[in-house]
Amino acid sequence: MDDASRHGREESDPSASASASAFSTVRGRLAADRADTVARLAALGRDFDGIVAANALVAVDDEHDPEGGTTAFERAHVAALMAQAREHLEELDRALERLERGRYGRCERCGGLIPSERLEIRPAATTCVRCAESAPGPTPSPA
């Protein structure tokens, strides 16, 4: 079948057109989130480099310098934020791969559909709400 007949059928089939539009919308949302995450990662990298450079200019003795603890905390905090951004970037890349394979929006545990509301909030979600709620997580401390 040539491209002209294939495109003609897609235009006359509203579900194919809606599906292509939804694919494009999701892809755009994931790409925008990815671009924001890459920019955030770059900014955090500059912040981290700035903290390290500032420490290199000063003879810092963390044990006796009142600012030493603050500097160490800032460095650790920015490093943790960078790790979170990298993890989110990997999640987005996996979501884009699922989208390309036609598996985006399907729960990886039960195979059911992930509600669109959940995907709006967490575009890289891999589980439906029910499976996410039943997943083992940190044990809450007794109140």
The biggest sheet, with number of strands, parallel, antiparallel or mixed sense and barrel status, is: none
Structural class: mainly alpha
Q: How many DSSP H or I helices? A: 5
Principal-axis shape:
elongated
> What is the percentage of strand-forming residues?
under 5%
Q: Low-confidence runs (pLDDT<50, min 5 residues)?
A: 1-15, 139-143
The termini sit apart by: 65 Å
Order of helices and strands: HHHHH
Mean pLDDT: 81
Number of strands: 0
Helix content percent band:
55-70%
Q: What is the gyration radius calculated from CA atoms? A: 23 Å
Overview of this protein structure:
The protein has 143 residues and is mainly α. The protein has five helices and no strands. It has helices at 3-12, 14-57, 68-101, 116-121, 129-134. α2 (14-57) runs antiparallel to α3. The protein is elongated. The relative contact order is 0.09.
Brief account:
With 143 residues, this protein is mostly helical. It has helices spanning 3-12, 14-57, 68-101, 116-121, 129-134.
